[in-house]
Every structure is written in C-alpha cells, then in structure tokens.
Design goal:
By secondary structure, the chain is α/β, with parallel strands linked by helices. It has a single domain, classed as Spore Coat Polysaccharide Biosynthesis Protein SpsA, Chain A (Alpha-Beta Complex), CATH 3.90.550.10. It has seven helices and 13 strands. Strands 1, 2, 3, 4, 6, 7, 8, 9, 10, 11 and 12 form an eleven-stranded mixed β-sheet that branches. Strand 2, helix 2 and strand 3 form a beta-alpha-beta unit. The chain is globular.
C-alpha cells in the first residue's frame, strides 16, 4: 500500500501577506508545493490530500487540481473554525484556525493508510520523502511514527522570526521531546527564542528541529482527537491558542503511547515565511534545476 501525502495549506499567510502557497518560484512557474508533490511521487507516494479553507478553494484548485490529478489521486479536505467536537461552538472573537494538529484531524475520514504530513510552503528536498517511504516500508507497528529533522541553523529566515519544534532525541534516535518555539531569530552570532514574557532563551544552532514533516499511521487520528478534545476544554475562549502537532506528539511520547523515530536528512530545506524570502528561494531552485535535480518543466 502506497503512503499518502497530507499537505497543510489552510494557513492564513499573515506574515507573508498573501496566499504564498500558489506563488510561482520555479523556472516554469512551479510553486514550492509542486516540488513537494513531484518529490513525493518519485519517492513512492500514491495519493495527495490537501487541507485548505473554503475561502481559498477556488484559487487553490484552479492552480493545482487539473495538473496534479493527471498523475496522482487528489482529495480535498477543509479546516474551518466551527469544525469542533459535538456541542462546541467557536467564540465570536476567534479569527485564527485552531492549528496544525486540528488541520491533520480534519483528514481522518480521507486517509486509511500510512501518511506523511508537510507544510505547503516549505521545500523539504527529495531525500526527506525517500526517508519517509523507507520508514513506512520497514516499520509497520501502528504506534511507531517518525519525524524528518533539520538543523536549526538551516531553517532560519533573515527577515523575521520563525516557529520551530525544538527536538531532543535519545541514543537510539527516538524522539524524547519536541517543544514548539514560536519566535526564533538569529541575533548576531546567536540564536534566540523570544518567550511569552519577552525574555529570551538561547538555542544551539545545531539542534534538531521539526519542520512539520511527520510520518504517521492511521491510529494517530484517534490519539490526536483525544488530545484535541482536551485542548478545546482548556482553550476554547483563548483567541490565540493553537493546537500544534508537536504538542500532541510530545504528550504521546511522554505517556508511552507512541514512539517517534528521528530520521536523519541530508537534503536541503528552505521556505517562504516573508516576502523577502522569495528571491532567495527562486535562486536556490534555479541552482537545483541547473544541477539536474529537477526538470525545467513538470
């Protein structure tokens, strides 16, 4: 059974200032998302499920639906504020989505096979998708998951703060903990995370971080649902609270309900968090194309 690629594309793109998921960056107008699907297909994925919002459905499908459906099975799933456990109604002052963990949960009825989760606006490199397929083929235990990790120094933006899941692994390469840091930036030679109280915590630039490239089995959906219900009970009236994938994974690890293997990845990562990042991404993809890693058109 071929694994499925679940793409998180419902984000508002508030820091970037637009629907960056459909911005062209390749030599023939390809988006970052096109490169992820291209890499996933050649690695052995068989289906793509998009998580989007109703208000971007028309724009998103006009760009991706026809060209991608020629070679892969495509499904569309929606994330909206009112998609909550029965009896729950979102507060009127809530404008942000409920977070990446909630987004994944929306795909529960669309995915019955092992699946990888990625962001729509991150370039992960072909090696990441190959490592994911290798994991799925070699580890069939239903509560064994994996994460493709990158060194923090290779995931920063020169133009503002970024959000990263800072990881700790044991000697066997199993994830011990993952902590979401939402305001990471380089200051001179150092890297810091700005905490909620505006204090700063220094981070090792070589530390491994999650870029939301996760490898899950279908059992993860029920586990995620349980944690989301607890999150809603405690955060329903906090307009800024978000339910992150790393938070749920961290809880599963610490309760011994799952193991998560950290997959070493030698490929490149880059992304567009801010408008100023885009020219750098275009240059990097151009270089990869010239080197023969990708065709000019696909």
């Amino acid at each position: 059974m071929k694994p499925t690629l679940l793409i998180l594309a419902a984000g508002l793109g508030s820091r970037y200032g637009g629907l960056k998921q459909i911005d062209p960056v390749g030599p023939s107008g390809q988006t970052i998302l096109d490169y992820s699907v291209f890499d996933a297909k050649r690695a052995g994925f068989g289906k793509v499920v998009f998580i989007i919002r109703k208000d971007i459905e028309e724009d998103f499908k006009s760009v991706f639906a026809q060209k991608l459906s020629k070679s892969l099975t495509i499904e569309w799933v929606f994330q909206e504020l009112d998609m909550l456990p029965e009896g729950k109604v979102p507060p009127t002052d809530r404008t942000k989505p409920w977070g990446t963990g909630h987004a994944v949960l929306m795909a529960k009825n669309a995915i019955k096979e092992p699946f990888a989760v990625i962001n729509a606006d991150d370039f992960y490199g072909s090696h990441a998708f190959e490592k994911a397929v290798e994991f799925f083929n070699s580890d069939t235990k239903e509560t064994n998951y994996a994460m493709v990790a990158y060194e923090l120094k290779n995931t920063l933006s020169d133009f503002g703060t970024v959000s990263r899941g800072v990881c700790e692994a044991d000697d066997e390469g199993n994830l011990i903990s993952v902590t979401e840091n939402t305001k990471i930036a380089r200051e001179g030679e150092m890297v810091y995370n700005t905490e909620a109280d505006n204090s700063k915590t220094q981070l090792d630039e070589n530390t491994l971080v999650s870029m939301n490239f996760w490898c899950f089995k279908p059992t993860f959906f029920d586990q995620l649902d349980s944690h989301f219900r607890g999150f809603i009970e405690n955060n329903m009236h906090n307009p800024k609270a978000e339910f992150y994938i790393p938070t749920a994974v961290d809880a599963l690890i610490k309760s011994n309900k799952a193991k998560v293997k950290v997959l070493p990845n030698q490929g490149q990562w880059f992304g567009i968090t801010y408008k100023e990042d885009k020219p750098l991404v275009i240059d990097k993809i151009k270089k990869l194309t010239i080197e023969g890693n990708y065709p000019d058109e696909f």
